[in-house]
Specification:
The protein has helices spanning 27-37, 65-76, 93-104, 129-139, 150-157, 166-180, 195-205, 220-228, 265-284, 297-312, 345-353, 355-362, 365-372, 377-404, 408-433, 439-444, 449-464, 467-490, 505-511, 514-533, 538-564, and strands at 13-21, 41-53, 56-62, 84-87, 111-114, 145-146, 183-186, 193-194, 209-211, 237-245, 248-255. With 567 residues, the protein is of the alpha/beta class. Among the domains are: 32-147 and 266-283 and 297-312, Ribokinase (UDP-N-acetylmuramoyl-L-alanine:D-glutamate ligase, 3-Layer(aba) Sandwich), CATH 3.40.1190.20; 345-564, Up-down Bundle (Heme Oxygenase, Chain A).
Length: 567
């Protein structure tokens, strides 16, 4: 049985210090979307307001440096200290100096990622030339990872040579690393290179290259499949990103994605890198020591792949360079996770999905008359005779669940329930004998149509589906009978349910008793834990809801069969 957990999940805190993009594709808007997509908590310090869209930046309003620092102080004053910070558009020399002064004075600093935003995709200058030297001399020595593209790296390092090959990029990366002595991720998006050329160089120079899923030569069977979709073979060109750090040099080679949806690429990558660090740090359980803040190569690769997929899955927007699809890795949950506020989102959804049918089931005249003690004896005798047949198939369904299970925990749970039903059937026979129905008579009584339809439906669902389908198929009986039992018990105080002199009092007591309710509580907890651990898609939830609704209808028909002694 799965364990239900109601604890909330901690979100690593990542701060973005950048400009605001009114178009939503870059700046803090892109950063916060990226941070959220990684399951982190995002906060922001705004350095500038921009009026921009996919065609370009029309205007910039710089936030006073003093107010930028005030925003930062409000987070760091023992309240919302982040695990990682990414810097984007810093707007001007005085803002850079103010940030450097504040961060230098901190007793310890978060992991710092700098995206040296200088020129927008449309060519608008976002950082005055005079501020570049302040960036290099004051802020760059503080950061743990800097992520320039080729033109930005050339500006930072005052590197005048042309960059046209991997060897040129390696020299440039080391030139930038000389300014920081920490890590540099040189982005190669401006220089797509032939895959074969990069592979040959890696072999001859002994370079450490992390290839995309296509590898050095591509995967022929995938290329063949792409042709069936009228797609070109794996791109012969790759984008090479170079990570140069104290630990060495590593290259990341990935497919070049031809797309106009590239606005905010640098913002997105740096935010993804900061988020990856925060996630790794949280998983490790302790903050890294000062001077020992490093993002693993695997984290770098995941961030790069996130950006590549965000570009590849973006639908064109606007008339210029459109935004990335930041939410491509996030799936829309059909249900919220269980919490202390609502520990039963799945079961509550099932019950709410068919309110009228559910009410007809748990408030059926059979149930009402049973509680009052006015139910005709022949109706109850017909019901308990058919219920014996149902118990046989109910046990079969749980045995089928054990067969479908892939863990010893589930096999044990289903098997124990099947054994419990077998023991319950023995007691059921003894209970029937109190009404003059012998076991021989039970076995000789044919199944009524309502019983056969219900029992076979459960078996059919279990045969077609998986373990969760089995659990849902048997849940309406378990949960519904508990609701009926508790409802009848609640009516004792008003006299609407009578125990004294009621020939069916034991039935009421059994289904409102602690032993049965204990099984129901375990069943609900198991259902909720399973759905929380493996959230169903909207389509899957619709199918499970359909199973539940049909079983509720069949349960109602079972009462109707008993009340009217139908065959």
């Amino acid at each position: 049985m799965a364990t239900l957990v109601l604890d909330t999940v901690p979100q690593p805190h990542v701060l973005t210090i950048a400009g605001s993009d009114s178009g939503g594709g870059a700046g803090i808007q892109a950063d916060l979307k990226t941070i959220a997509a990684h399951g982190c908590y995002g906060s922001s310090v705004i350095t500038a307001l921009t009026a921009q869209n996919t065609l370009g930046v029309q205007a910039v309003h710089t936030v006073p440096p003093e107010f930028v620092v005030e925003q930062l102080k409000s987070l760091f004053d023992d309240d919302l200290k982040p695990l990682a910070i990414k810097f984007g558009m810093l707007a001007g020399e005085s803002t850079i100096a103010a940030l450097a002064d504040y961060l230098s004075a901190l007793p310890s600093r978060p992991f710092l990622v700098l995206d040296p935003v200088m020129v927008s995709t449309s060519g608008h200058h976002l950082l005055p030339d005079a501020a570049t030297q302040t960036l290099v001399s004051r802020l760059l020595p503080l950061v743990d990872l800097v992520t320039p593209n080729i033109p930005e790296a050339q500006a930072l390092a005052q590197y005048g040579e042309q960059v046209q090959s991997v060897q040129d990029m390696l020299k440039l990366a080391e030139a930038v690393r000389g300014l920081t002595n920490r890590a540099v991720l040189l982005k190669g998006g401006h220089l797509p290179l032939p895959r074969a050329q990069v592979a040959a160089l890696a072999t001859s120079e002994g370079l450490d290259v992390q290839w995309d899923e296509a590898g050095e030569e591509g995967v022929r069977v995938i290329d063949d499949f792409r042709q069936t979709l009228n797609l070109a073979a794996t791109s012969p060109t790759v984008v090479v990103d170079i990570l140069a750090s104290p630990a060495g040099v590593r290259l990341f080679a990935g497919k070049h994605v031809s797309s106009s949806s590239t606005h905010g690429t640098g913002c997105t990558l740096s935010a993804a890198l900061a988020s990856q660090y925060a996630m790794e740090n949280t998983a490790a359980g302790a903050e890294a020591e000062e001077g020992d803040k490093n993002l693993s190569p695997a984290g770098v690769r995941r961030a790069i792949e996130y950006v590549q997929s965000a570009i590849a899955t973006a639908h064109p927007m606007g008339r210029g360079h459109g935004p990335l699809n930041h939410s491509h890795l996030t799936s829309r949950r059909a249900l919220p996770p269980p919490t202390a506020h609502n520990p039963t989102p799945f079961v509550s959804h099932l019950i709410r999905s068919c309110p009228e049918l559910w009410d007809e089931y748990i408030r059926h005249p059979f149930v009402v008359q049973l509680g009052e003690g006015t139910l005709p004896r022949k109706s109850f005798e017909h019901y308990i005779s058919q219920d014996y047949h149902y118990l046989v198939h109910y046990a079969r369904a749980h045995a089928l669940g054990a067969y479908k299970s892939t863990t010893m925990e589930d096999i044990k749970a289903f098997s124990e329930i099947a054994l419990h039903i077998a023991r319950e059937s023995t007691m059921h026979v003894a209970y029937c004998e109190q009404f003059g129905i012998t076991k021989a008579k039970l076995l000789a009584t044919p199944e009524a149509a309502a019983c056969a339809a219900y029992a076979r439906y459960i078996i059919d669902v279990g045969t077609q589906g998986d373990v969760l389908d089995v659990y849902v198929a048997v849940a309406s009986c378990l949960i519904g009978y508990a609701e009926v039992g508790l409802w009848l018990k609640s009516r004792i105080a008003t006299g609407e349910t009578k125990l004294e002199g009621n020939p069916y009092a034991r039935w009421v007591e059994d289904y409102s008793g602690e032993e049965f309710l204990g099984a129901v509580r375990r069943g609900i907890a198991n259902l909720e834990a399973r759905v929380a651990a493996d959230p169903p898609s909207p389509e899957r939830l619709a199918r499970l809801t359909e199973v539940w609704t049909e079983c509720v209808r069949l349960e109602r028909n079972f009462w109707e069969m008993g009340l009217k002694v139908l065959w």
